[in-house]
Design a protein that fits this description.
Elements (H helix, E strand, L loop, with lengths): L1 E6 L8 E6 L2 E5 L5 H7 L4 H5 L3 H6 L7 H7 L3 E5 L5 H4 L2 H4 L7 E3 L1 H13 L7 E3 L5 E3 L4 E7 L8 E7 L2 E6 L16 H10 L3 E5 L13 H11 L9 E4 L5 H13 L3 E5 L1 H12 L5 H4 L1 E2 L5 H11 L4 E5 L9 H6 L12 E4 L7 H16 L3 E3 L10 H11 L3 E5 L3 H13 L16 E3 L1
Parallel strand pairs: 3-4, 4-5, 5-6, 10-11, 11-18, 12-15, 12-16, 13-14, 13-15, 16-17
Antiparallel strand pairs: 1-2, 1-19, 2-3, 7-8, 8-9, 9-10
The structure holds zinc ion.
Zinc ion (ZN) binds next to loops.
Length: about 450
């Protein structure tokens, strides 16, 4: 078995891994760098994805798969996507076409992909829908099984490759949430069965492996939000909450809290509209019945309505928590929208700043602008979607893979993950492996 580190092993984002058994290869995830996407962004991420493939690779938006493609491109049998976040999915419209194979994902992930394709570039690959708990036969030597896992978007799965050389688990982005707002808990029973049977290799997310803790449940965010929003004096004030558009569970929480506040929830922002529509198309939520889901071309009209009917009547749920240029909150702060932020209005950041220099700079500019208007800020009301160090330790003990390969982070994160594995008896270079983009591992 060969493992090809294509993207996501030298930095956070643009995840892409290849696995070869005999003369057959599959690709796991095909994402973009969300940071770089935002930097290049003019009128929207779909516009950036229309740029030519070589440009997107040289700008480090898409993974650099040129070397891998030359060697293995013709023998790729499937592209498997674990969940609907852009750093795992949005490389598909850019890179997948040249691999003549199907793209396999859960219904929600496929729905998000379809929307992306519709607005960026056409894709000829066959799309194969696979539910958590099901297995798809890729060829005579390989099949893929989806195992349900909790994360910060819907229908996230761990991908289990069953091959003639043993099983490989690819679990890139998950947490262990005991009280998820939507959906079940991670399928521990199946993971334990796989571990007991013997797993050849585990490729896993190292985003939060440097945090000496466990990642707490999303249900605690609900309590934190209630503690803020139901306690402060919001009378006749605008209340704006900004969070991840793909986090449908959190949007659901916010819509319910709006009812407790006697306010009409308004979901506004282009990516908010896209993700909620995708979730509704596959029957996972009905938010547009409980809230006003604003079509992107009606954003201005809706904001005018809020100004004229009274800002105290609505709870505005929107995009822009990373200070991304062109996101709704940023445009409001820049006075580009028909809505004025007034002293003592309230902005709640239901997010953490993703620690990249671009995001940190963008957010600090946004915070300053908002504060200069006399608006009250509540920040860091958030729980991560990524397993922390002690979750990862439990996971490793559950699976006991023969080989451990961390990904999704730069060298410092990966080294930290290798250190954790060492605490459990793994030896670097023997059964734990530190790969960088472009490297190949033979096990
Ligand atoms: Zn994710």
């Amino acid at each position: 078995m060969k493992i090809h580190a294509i993207g996501g092993y030298s930095e956070f984002g643009r995840n892409m891994t290849g696995v070869t058994v005999g003369n057959e290869t599959v690709i796991l995830d095909c994402g973009v760098s969300v940071d770089k996407l935002a930097t290049l962004q003019g009128s929207g991420e779909e516009e950036v994805l229309k740029l030519p493939e070589p440009r997107l690779i040289s700008e480090k938006v898409a993974p650099d798969d040129r070397q891998f493609y030359k060697k293995y491109g013709r023998q790729v049998k499937a592209i498997i996507i674990g969940h609907a976040h852009l750093d795992h999915l949005a490389g598909v419209p850019v890179l997948a076409g040249k691999y003549k194979c199907p793209v396999i994902a859960t219904p929600f992930t496929l729905e998000v992909l379809k929307q992306l394709i519709k607005k960026s570039r056409p894709l000829r690959n066959q799309l194969v829908m696979l539910n958590a708990g099901s297995t798809y036969k890729i060829s005579n030597t390989m099949s893929v099984e989806f195992v349900y896992a909790t994360h910060s978007t819907l229908q996230t799965v761990m991908c289990v490759l069953h091959t003639t050389e043993g099983d490989l688990i690819y679990s890139v982005d998950f947490k262990f949430d005991e009280s998820p707002i939507i959906g079940q808990k991670t399928n521990y029973k199946r993971l334990k069965e796989l571990g007991a049977k013997g797993v050849k290799a585990l490729i896993t997310d190292s985003t939060r492996v440097d945090r000496d803790s466990r990642t707490m449940s999303e249900s605690l965010v609900r309590e934190m939000l209630k503690d803020v929003l139901l306690w402060i004096d919001t009378k006749n004030k605008a209340v704006i909450v900004t969070t991840f558009a793909s986090h449908i569970a959190r949007l659901t929480t916010l819509v319910r809290i709006a009812k407790l506040m006697n306010r009409i929830p308004v979901l506004i922002g282009r990516s908010m509209y896209n993700y909620v529509t995708a979730a509704e198309n596959v029957g996972l939520c009905k938010l547009s019945r409980e809230a006003i889901l604003v079509k992107p071309r009606e954003n201005r009209r809706m904001l005018k309505r809020i100004e004229s009917e009274g800002r105290g009547k609505f709870l505005i749920i929107t995009t822009g928590h990373q200070g991304e240029p062109n996101a709704m909150l940023v445009r409001m702060a820049d006075d580009q929208m028909p809505f004025t932020l007034l002293p003592e209005d309230i902005v709640v950041f239901c997010s953490e700043v993703i620690p990249s220099p671009v995001n940190q700079a963008n957010r600090s500019v946004l915070d300053k602008k908002i504060k200069s208007k006399g608006v009250r800020i509540f920040k860091d009301i958030h729980m991560s979607g990524h397993a922390a160090r002690e979750d990862m330790r439990e996971f490793l003990k559950m699976i006991r893979p023969q080989h451990y390969i961390p990904t999704h982070g730069g060298i410092i994160k990966l080294s930290n993950a290798i250190q954790l594995a060492a605490e459990l008896g793994y030896k670097l270079g023997k059964d734990s492996h530190l790969l960088q983009d472009g490297q190949e591992l033979d096990i």
